[in-house]
Amino acid sequence: MNRLFAPSRHTYLRAVRASAWYDLVLTAGFATPWTYVLIHDALNSLGDALGLGVLPAVDPTQTLYANLMGSVVVVWALLRIVKPLPVHGLFDGVARTLFSVWFAYALAQGATRILWAFLVVEVAWGVVQLLPWWRTQRANLLDGPVGPSAARPLGAEGR
Q1: pLDDT surpassing 50 at residue 145
Q2: Within 10 Å of residue 36's Cβ, how many Cβ atoms?
Q3: Could you tell me the end-to-end alpha-carbon distance of the chain, in angstroms, rounded to an integer?
Q4: pTM greater than the 0.85 cutoff
Q5: What is the pLDDT of residue 79?
Q6: By CB neighbour count within 10 A (0-12 exposed, 13-18 middle, 19+ buried), where does 12 fall?
Q7: Is the dihedral of CA 131, 137, 140, 146 positive or negative?
Q8: How many Å apart are CA 157 and CA 149, to the nearest integer?
Q9: Structure confidence by residue, pLDDT tens digits, 99-112
């Protein structure tokens, strides 16, 4: 990635790290079968108490997918906590866009409305992490090429 197109402000990296902490706290419980059952029960209780519906009963396949998702998100969150880079925010924003689409799809198919809370947070973190990229990209496109490579003619990269 060209650094000219990457938001590198300290505040942006703090947002990348903050979104990682959110992910770690929220998804750590999905990473093991034992903790997933606890999370599942807690979400069911909350959904039932608020009248938003409950999740399907726990089964081994659902647990496997929850554990796979939880494990990958925990590792991805730890990377962004330990070594946050602007490009991590870009990729996380893209992943959040995909997650948001799948949450919306599940809701449209009649899934428990407790997913609305997750959807709202995914969209918010996605905007926080993608908007600076979009602004930087747009500004650079409007301003034209900048920096040393702008002065070189095409094909003169190696000279």
Answers
A1: yes
A2: 21
A3: 21
A4: no
A5: 98
A6: buried
A7: positive
A8: 8
A9: 999 999 999 999 99
